[in-house]
Amino acid sequence: MWRVMETPLNCAEEQQPPPAFPASWSTVTPQESTPDRNDKGNVGFVLVHAGAGYHSESKAKEYKHVCKRACQRAVDRLKAGALAVDAVTAALVELEDSPFTNAGMGSNLNLSGEIECDASIMDGKSLRYGAVGAVSGINNPVLVANRLLSEAQKGKLSAGRIPPCFLVGRGAHDWAVNHGIPPCPSEKMATKFSLSAYKRNKHKMELAEKVDTGFNHHSKKRRQASETENGSGLLDTVGAIVVDREGNVAAAVSSGGLAMKHPGRVGQAAHHGCGCWAENTSTLNPYSTAVSTSGCGEHLIRTMLARECSSAMQCEDAHQALLEAMQNKFISSPFLASEDCVLGGVIVLRCCRCSDAQPSPDIQAILVEFLWSHTTESMCVGYMSAQDGKAKTHISRLPPGAVAGQSLAIEGGVCRLVNTPTTVD
Q: Each residue of 204-252: pLDDT tens digit?
């Protein structure tokens, strides 16, 4: 049997945040879960996010609900014996299928009024990676990314050709269809919400073009005010990270990209080391780590935030490591020195076999530390162990008075998974 014991992370320094980087330290205290007497011994943990941006109170229920469903989908796969890559893919499919997220169904429309999606996935065990960028007509781009990863594991193609790990545009679409992934007309992927947002944004752009030619000074002030009010509301990217019963980790990310993006633009969700990262423990790394990011793609690409956070998590104090990574490698990154508003968010987990003495050599334990951090106004997350009855969800927000793009929030918890073998009479 597996049982789960969860405790909050140590946040002893929360009363004195560094003055140069206003931050919010808070702690989520999960409930202790009850073990399922009928489970098959499968175990794992999943953490998902529904984008870093702004989540209105009026839609909080919908965002939390989709995170719960995504967690449940991943846990169902883990209980069926699936490994981390399959479980994280299942979570992403659920997130992509929701009309409330900017991924797959309901994605932002680009300048041409079309939907182009990015997605990637990484397996911490093999370190393989698969990604698609600016792909149209595929409802679940993460399935293409996952298939690229699995096909690459089969070895070289005919005539010794190297199999692709990253495809874009029409080539990605055709490859997906040829490998059994059903196409979906782009117009069917748009929702009433995404279409109305496109019309509003197009109208704003037309007004802005008039302003830029000196047409109306007062309109310019109104446009700037509108951008301030609505700019942070453009949710970007969903993702998930998973650890399975063997301690393998995997990460995935999917996005419809920024609203009104240029056709062909590829965001961080498809870039290696920017959208997601997963790496099992090794002789060089004492911890297995998994990361999925969200926010302004250009900021995340230029800082390679996913890989930076993964590297930082090899330090002893996970909370402090993530805090310093977000401050030093993102907010104050020299690669973003010209930016006065740095927008992004991450979910992170790290795990290792517990080193404490066990009462029996047959009993194994995995310690999972999970965190999320964001510089945007809010970030919606959900998490669940394989023995939890239901997922827990939370909308993390910057504290009152904090400035989005200049401040950060960080929260998390600790989950100890203990494997108690079932005895047979």
A: 888 888 776 654 544 444 444 343 333 444 556 899 999 999 999 999 9
Parallel/antiparallel/unpaired status of strands 344-353 and 288-295: antiparallel
Spatial separation of the C-alpha atoms in residues 241 and 49, rounded to whole Å: 9
And the tokens for 28? 């989520």
Residue with tokens 């998930």, as numbered in its chain: 240
How far apart are the C-alpha atoms of 311 and 152, rounded to whole Å?
25
Entry pTM = 0.87
* Residues identified as active-site: 237
Encode pLDDT of 266-308 as tens digits: 999 999 999 999 999 998 899 999 999 999 999 999 999 999 9
Q: In this structure, are residues 293 and 137 in contact, taking their beta carbons and an 8 Å threshold?
A: no
Q: Report d(CA 300, CA 306) in Å as an integer.
A: 8
pLDDT tens-digit profile of 48-64?
Answer: 999 999 888 888 899 99
Classified as helix, coil or strand, 217 is helix
Inter-CA distances, 324 with 174, 298, 312, Å: 42, 21, 8
Distance, CA of 5 to chain centre: 24
Q: Specify the length of the chain in residues.
A: 425
Task: Give the span between the Cα atoms of 106 and 305, in whole angstroms.
Answer: 26
| CB 223 within 8 Å of CB 204 | yes
**Banded model confidence at residue 22, pLDDT cuts 50, 70, 90:** very low
Unique residue bearing structure tokens 């530390």: 369
Whether the CB-CB separation of 85 and 250 falls below 8 Å is answered with: yes
State the SS3 of 45-76: EEEEEEEEECCCHHHHHHHHHHHHHHHHHHHH
Q: Are 101 and 91 in contact (CB under 8 A)?
A: no
Higher pLDDT, 16 or 177: 177
Highest mean pLDDT: which of 6-15, 27-36, 134-143? Answer: 134-143
Instruction: From 14, 36, 44, select the one nearest 247 (Cα to Cα).
Output: 44
How far apart CA 115 and CA 96 sit, in angstroms, is 13
Q: How far are the Cα atoms of 10, 165, 232, 326, 418 from residue 236, in angstroms, in the given order?
A: 30, 23, 10, 18, 36
Give the contacts of 78 (CB within 8 A, at least 6 positions apart).
Answer: 42, 43, 44, 46, 87, 242, 244, 245, 386
